[in-house]
Amino acid sequence: MAEARQAVNFLPSLTSDRGxxxxxxxxxxxxxxxxxxxWKRHFLxxxxxxxxxxxxxxxxxWLFLFSAIQLAWFLQLDPSLGLMExxxxxxxxxxxxxxxxxxxxxxxxxxxxxxxxxxxxxxVALRLxxxxxxxxxxxxxxxxxxxxxxxxxxxxxxxxxxxLFSYQRSLPRQPVPSVQDTVRKxxxxxxxxxxxxxxxxxxxxxxxxxxxxxxxxQWYLWLKSWWASNYVSDWWEEFVYLRSRNSLMVNSNYYMMxxxxxxxxxxxAARAGNAVHALLLYRHRLNRQEIPPNLLMGMRPLCSAxxxxxxxxxxxxxxxxxxxxxxxxxxxxxxxxQGRFFRVGTHSQNGLLSPxxxxxxxxxxxxxxxxxxxxxxHLAALTAAPRGMWAQVRKSLKTRAAHALEAxxxxxxxxxxxAEPAGLTREDPAASLDxxxxxxxxxxxxxRWFDKSFTLIVFSNGKLGLSLEHSWADCPIxxxxxxxxxxxxxxxxxxxxxxxxxxxxxxxxxxxxxxxWDLPEQIHSSISxxxxxxxxxxxxxxxxxxxxxxxxxxxxxxxxxxxDSFIQMALQLAHFRDRGHFCLxxxxxxxxxxxxxxxxxxxxxxxxACNFVRAMEDKEKTDPxxxxxxxxxxxxxxxxxxxxxxxxxxxxxxxxxYIVSRFLHMQSPFLTQVHSEQWQLSTSQIPVQQMHLxxxxxxxxxxxxxxxxxxxxxxxxxxxxxxxxxxxITFHISxxxxxxxxxxxxxxxxxxxxxxxxxxxxxxxRHLKRRFRGLGEEDSGxxxxxxxxxxxxxxxxxxxxxxxxxx
Length: 807
What we know:
This protein is an alpha+beta fold and 807 residues long. The protein is globular, with a radius of gyration of 29 Å. Among the domains are: 266-293 and 303-539, Chloramphenicol Acetyltransferase (2-Layer Sandwich), CATH 3.30.559.70; 542-646 and 678-769, Chloramphenicol acetyltransferase-like domain (Chloramphenicol Acetyltransferase, 2-Layer Sandwich). The strands form 5 sheets. It has an 8-stranded mixed β-sheet, with helices on both faces. The protein has a 6-stranded mixed β-sheet with strand order 14-20-19-17-15-16. A two-stranded antiparallel sheet has the order 2-3. A hairpin with a 3-residue loop joins strand 2 and strand 3.
């Protein structure tokens, strides 16, 4: 999502409070319980790791193999062909009475070795099977015989009941593409956006690169691909994210929204209690690997490595380079409210606190009248400052306020209880959604801890949202967690008739701990400077969110087209109408078909897409002619998308080649030019991965409205979209107010026009074509007609008494 801006801007034990401890019975009991929990946790992880390592076999398969060997031995058969006798000779001689024990041990050792060899063979066989990608380029209705055979073998070798990390040892490594193919594809991708003179010059640089430097750089990448788990992902994390010195806010973070039309309860503390409890339930399932692995199209496992750092993770600033700190466990969350920081425990001796108990703790914070200390209110603005500045200040902060800093950075995640409402309102639906997106992406610059893996934001009217740091994982991972959270807190946990979490409060719980910050004088000016910078950055971002309700995925499917390619071509048309020219377009695609794969770029602005756009703007072209060009453009985009998913894209290979050239101090004008390009249109689709958690037919309003990110270029746009059910698409658009070339609302109108114009090319969509293009009052009201189709008023959007499915 927000990675496009980073990609073009990258540069070549808890602290004790030292208080006295009374050695009393309850303290010893707590120490005992703490140790018991720790050993239990380690045992569960060891058992899960063991099960993952032997998958698709099971421990019972070893017992079966051992029993079969013992039975054969009893029947005077030797399946080991003499190996067990040699093993017995190597075992110590304990005397005649232990002769049978030596035989049993020899059989157990032989069974273990044979079992390990079989497991290794299964892993290798499955890895070879998963290296086949021909199925991705075929229609499900017309699979070839090789693909059907492959699918049957994958099902046989995949085993039963896999857990989250079961396939990690069987995933193939991401291949290094041919450098000649990469350069050819690159030149093809830039041809539509370069003049003849610029393209000829770029082609000359490319040929010089192929002749002089490519083979050496490629050799190093090939070597790394055999040695490392992934030839590009670790460098991508380090150089694109961790070495970036820019502010995380807007430049790197992204956001996820709540339900669009409903808010299950208007009580802020209740919503926070259920949401935090649901998130911690997800973490519990994650630790026990009870989350099933992601399967692309229901048959091809994806890499799950990014799930490891969802919780208990902080990006720690450094002067030259940040690093990601991940704890194995954390039993508290850090909470921010009205400029104050609190530490809220999430567990008691009986386990995870109930939602009602968590609501009680959050309500105590809301009711706490104590004011913020001087400069404490704006302290979090430092996490939105340039990384080098924040790293220097953090050294002083760690010396003077180590306990408070550790409570925040060591938390499971960060919670911000906002004092303002957010979400869709009937009075001004367009402005309210835009403000909602802006609050999630940037806030006020000092009310989010941008270093944490994610911040849960709970607004005063009960609306939710997430602000997410990008370096540790990509959007599909956090989207999976967010879908589980929304579904669990609404459909499983639910709320009582008065809007509170179900259950009873626990009066024995201690008060939330107010964190005390001893802020030295020398950092006061740094906080003020960081706050000014954060406010400037926040005020410059122009967010626009609009649900497109004229048609959705079901209509596109009836046209027998890819829904993502349909939207991408419409975006090309909309952007051309907005800016009057074509530009490099960044679309994020995942490479998790490979071990530790992350993303690849789909360059959506193709020659075929440009031909289609020109035809749409040519009044002499007929609809059938435009439709023919549209289908060609969609097919080209699909080919690029599938190639990117298979590791045959352009940008990650060129990025890795550039990093090698910098390590070798080798100047490459071609690679330098490649990485100086600006992405004026950065796009991403938010995937919906767990539709089984939502009943979109009976409760169509209970679907996440997706999220968004900042623009990749100061004069460009960031556009994300999500298919909400079958008949709605929600778009999130961002740009810079300081740019005279962009306007998020203007592009939004062009996107709506483009979608309707493209749909009118099809027989089924001709009734959707609007008969005028004006932006008068009637048309403007039509654009936001999605409000009229929903009962949006203060009663229904802020209470769950009558319409929520969990009552």
